[in-house]
Specification:
Order of helices and strands: HHEEEEEEEHEEHEEHE
Largest sheet: 6 strands, mixed, barrel
CATH architecture of the largest domain: Beta Barrel
CATH class of the largest domain: Mainly Beta
Distance between the termini: 54 Å
Strand content: 25-35%
Radius of gyration: 20 Å
Strand order of the largest sheet: 3-7-4-6-5-8
Helix content: 10-25%
Length: 303
């Protein structure tokens, strides 16, 4: 029987290697001029025999069992990537693709992308390993992983709780943990205050590198009001269906359940949401309970 081609094996291994929570990722922009970035201290070097074996399953691919972070460093000495037009990577852009039973579609470009949600980050466990685009993860570069943005692409990520923002180069797939919108490199997480908390509420705006720099999306203006986390369980054109689902959720004691009207693609719909929830941990717990009721995985909304 003919064996699968090496490219197929690589793609399968890369997709499966990016799983719940943190995962492998990132890299500096190719051909960055020498001296442009003052690098932070490097983590302890791996032994000379280190090799990222892409044929191994994730359970045994990484040498470290748990993720960790290096000592704090001054990210102000790092320079954000300058968006530029780059060819799409030969790896990591298959669309659609399926991970953990869920199907994702890669966008044709980052232009017009604007989403709010929960950010996480990943650190030393993945340092030096390959990302889904077959670049090498560098936790001291401003990079990120997305399930839908093309590889590579650029985005501005703003922490909605403090207004800090960073431009990142997206070169990896993930996060595939439920309720997460984007995975940031360790440096990017430090830059906008996602570290040491671990997660944060962010807005991600895609960047079209063909735009002049002066037209790049500005940071989101953050007011003093703390953004709320909601779980959208469904959206219906019929108010009766929305109310029946809302009543079922109320009987389950999941918290405040709201039915609100919204316009989606020119159509009036009734959204059923649970929230606002106290924090990310509460959102994860309530989301798991909703799925345990046999309902689809809810979508996180940050307002």
């Amino acid at each position: 029987m003919r064996q699968p081609g090496i490219v197929s094996l690589l793609l399968l291994a890369l997709l499966l290697s990016a799983c719940a929570g943190s995962r492998h990722r990132s890299d500096r922009i190719p051909a960055r001029p020498p001296g442009q970035v003052e690098r932070a201290p490097s983590p302890p070097a791996r032994d000379a025999g280190f090799h990222d074996d892409l044929s191994r399953p994730q359970s045994s691919r990484y040498r470290d069992g748990n993720d960790s972070v290096p000592p704090p460093f001054d990210v102000s000495k790092l320079v954000e990537p300058v968006p530029k037009v780059e060819p799409r990577s030969h790896y990591g852009n298959n669309s659609p693709y399926t991970v953990n039973g869920r199907t994702y579609r890669v966008l044709p470009s980052a232009r017009g992308y604007d989403e709010r949600g929960i950010a996480s980050f990943y650190g030393t466990k993945f340092q030096g390993y390959k990302t889904s685009s077959l670049e090498t993860y560098d936790m001291y570069a401003f990079s990120a992983a997305s399930t839908t943005l093309p590889l590579p692409s650029y985005a501005r990520v703003t922490n909605l709780e403090n207004g800090k923002s960073v431009i990142v180069r997206v070169n990896d797939r993930g996060p595939f943990h439920q309720n997460r919108l984007i995975d940031l490199s360790y440096a990017a997480a430090v830059k906008i205050g996602i570290w040491p908390k671990g997660t944060g509420l962010v807005e991600v705006r895609g960047i079209d590198p063909r735009q002049p720099a002066r037209e790049l999306p500005p940071p989101v203006v953050v007011t003093g009001r703390h953004p709320g986390i909601y779980l959208q369980v469904g959206a219906f054109s019929d108010i009766g269906n929305a109310e029946r689902l809302a009543q079922r959720l109320r009987q389950a004691g999941l918290g405040t359940v709201q039915v609100t009207e919204a316009m989606v693609n020119g159509q009036r719909v009734q959204r059923v949401r649970v929230g606002p929830l106290a924090d990310v941990a509460s959102a994860d717990q309530v989301s798991a309970r909703i799925e345990g009721m046999g309902l689809p995985r809810p979508r996180v909304a940050v307002d």
